[in-house]
Batch of 2 targets.
Target 1
Amino acid sequence: MAAGSDLSLLKNKVAGARSLTVLTGAGISADSGVPTFRGADGLWRNFRAEDLATPEAFERDPRLVWEWYNWRRELITTKKPNPAHEAVVELERRFDRFWLITQNVDGLHRAAGSTKLSEIHGNIWMTRCTACHRISENHEVPIPILPTCADCRELLRPHIVWFGEALFAADLARCAEALERCDVLLVVGTSGLVYPAAGFASVAKEAGAFVAELNLEPTPQSGLMDLSLQGRAKELLPLLL
Ligand code: BJW
Ligand code: ZN
């Protein structure tokens, strides 16, 4: 658990901020029972990213990739937002200038009530047409394999940013603005290994923000943080309110 003095320092920084940005990763949803990617029980322990989470994998075997996403949908549909997601909603309510950047595709931030957010790696409850690029919400569990577009009948893919794919330019622009203008950046439950999100803490710090990490364990990014709190997101985040 975090040292009390660090906690009260961060609480003061948050209370004194005019603009707050929060960056979240799989660790915030771990407290809801959603598996992370790189931990001891992480998804990449049992599945190879290159077989499932790349455009090449989908081209090679769309059925296999959709089966994996159906399995993830089944798992996530049973999960609910936890007190950490709820604390983020409360932070959004308290700040006029607030932005949430999440790498999570599970939709739990939206389910909790967050509205000012960029889901930079997409959303597992959305599909995108491989031909006409139409994006649609779809909550079917399981989704019938192979799903096709209601408009043009071509193959649908998950609306997810896979390895080697560029993030959406509009999301990146929105994130850059939120990182450059914030007084405080909270980095919650991410290993800080996947770019471009792994570079976001440096962007905010170089722009003058106070940058704090909330994570179960130290990460490769801990050294650049102004403060690193160790503990569960669902316990730490509510303490900042
Ligand atoms: C807790 C907790 C609790 C646990 N409380 N904390 C070499 C090869 C190929 C690619 C690259 C390469 N080198 C660099 C790249 C680029 C690549 C990259 O960064 N790779 C690195 C891994 C090396 N990045 C990309 O490819 C990105 N695109 C890109 O760069 O495009 C460039 C481009 C420009 C122009 C044209 C074309 C291209 C895209 C990255 C997309 C990432 N997508 C994924 C998977 C999607 C599949 C899916 O989910 O369905 O997104 S990867 C996966 O990692 C997922 C996550 O969002 C992302 C980040 O993971 P996260 O959230 O940090 O989770 P974990 O598991 O790593 O960490 C959990 C943390 O929580 C841990 O620290 C725990 O301690 C903590 N924790 N319980 C608090 N209770
Ligand atoms: Zn279409």
Target 2
Amino acid sequence: MKKRKIISMMLVMMMASALIAGCGSTAKNGGEAGNTGDKQQENAGGNKDKVVNVFTARHYDVDAKVYEEFTKQTGIKVNEVKGTAEELVERLKREGESTEADLFVTVDGGVLNYAKQNEVLQPIESASVLQNVPEQWRDKDNNWVGMATRARVIVYAKDRVKPEQLSTYEDLATDKWKGKVLVRSSSSLYNQSLLASFIELNGEQQAEEWAKGMVSNFARDPEGGDRDQAKAIAAKVGDVAIMNTYYVGQMLNSKDAEEVKVAENIGIFFPNQDTTGTHLNISGVGLTKYAKNKDNALKLIEFITGKDGQTILTQGSFEFPVNEAADKPELLNTWGEFKTQQIDFAKLGELNKKATEILTKVGWK
Ligand code: FE2
């Protein structure tokens, strides 16, 4: 009895850490630039008037370019402290009023909401930020605002699959795709949030049936990151994969000729256009509760969500801008408009535990 209690406590702890581990959590199985274990770059303090300190769980090189341009335009230096979202929220809690962090940046709406629930953020009071970011991409109390969005779509082998054969996420779990489906592991927050969205939209039972169907259609045991699923399509391991849109853009613009070739041979399909819409997630920024450089922090949020910041960000990451004024990459226009899931991002966090339980139960490795 006692042993069982300890095991269940351990499980709860493991799930909690899975919930808050952002992109960085994928490093161990994806080889994508995760930040876990990176030596934290600590350079807080200095001239109080000319600095802003950012705790960030995002793993994209372009963020530094956005910050550089901000410094060029304002003279305000940006210090990045990198870590997993879990580490950073815990640190904000532990440090309380003494924290040097002014901003918290991460991917995943569920994680952003987790930070809010842990009371480490405060409302962003800036008319221009509210103007830059439409209401649908903001926390209702403005504790965080979106900086970019990403869709989790179906990609397919152009030479073996016709887009007419594709329709919904649900269809991928039917017999017709047996042995042909590629997707990364259940430790990926991207998959956990995808399943959480299905729990919210279709109920727990249907979500579980979907996950079960997917597992029985896997072309191989899940391995690698999103890019590796595209590579496995090229290697004819499978014909269809679930992938975030921005990775396709990054691969098409990669310095690695092989990655470009892989990306050129896959098509992007936005599923569920006649039903619940394509799954969308968000990257965002929150103002920490005890921000000491609050004015500078607000200026940086204004910049990130403004036209220049949004243009630099999306040209480098191939995420979708939250501000329509951005000059987004032409590639994103070629993908066209698509219908997106309409759910509260907070639900992704609230349903993470349930989603993780289902993924484990159905044997999604
Ligand atoms: Fe990522």
